[in-house]
Amino acid sequence: MPHRPNNHPLKIYFYDLKLLFSIFLILVAIIELKVELRILFHHFTFTALFYTVVNHPFSVIAIIFCPIYIIRGKT
């Protein structure tokens, strides 16, 4: 089996896929949270923030962890 060097083009391709997937997840999360974000921007209360996190945990987790995933994927 041939040895692939570290600078193989597939590494760049997989990083691009991870980046596109992360951007897609963030966009879907923002679309899902559209109404709640509008309420939070107009009239911020901790109760509204609490219910946003409780009612849409996947979206909140995606918005928090996708940038971390993108940054770690660069190395």
Task: Give structural attributes.
75 residues, mainly alpha, 4 helices, 80% helix, 0% strand, elongated
Q: What topology does this entry show?
A:
Blueprint: H1 9-32, H2 34-42, H3 46-55, H4 57-73
Helix pairs in contact: 1-4
Descriptive account of the structure:
This protein is mostly helical and 75 residues long. The chain has a domain at 26-73. 80% of the residues lie in helices and 0% in strands. The chain contains four helices and no strands. The protein has helices at 9-32, 34-42, 46-55, 57-73. The longest helix is centred in the N-terminal third of the chain and has 24 residues, at 9-32. The radius of gyration is 18 Å and the shape is elongated. The two termini are 26 Å apart. The mean pLDDT is 81.
Please report the total strand number as a whole number.
0
Average pLDDT figure: 81
Structural class: mainly alpha
Ranges where pLDDT stays below 50 over 5 or more residues in a row are none
Strand content: under 5%
Biggest pleated-sheet summary: none
Please give the radius of gyration in angstroms. Answer: 18 Å
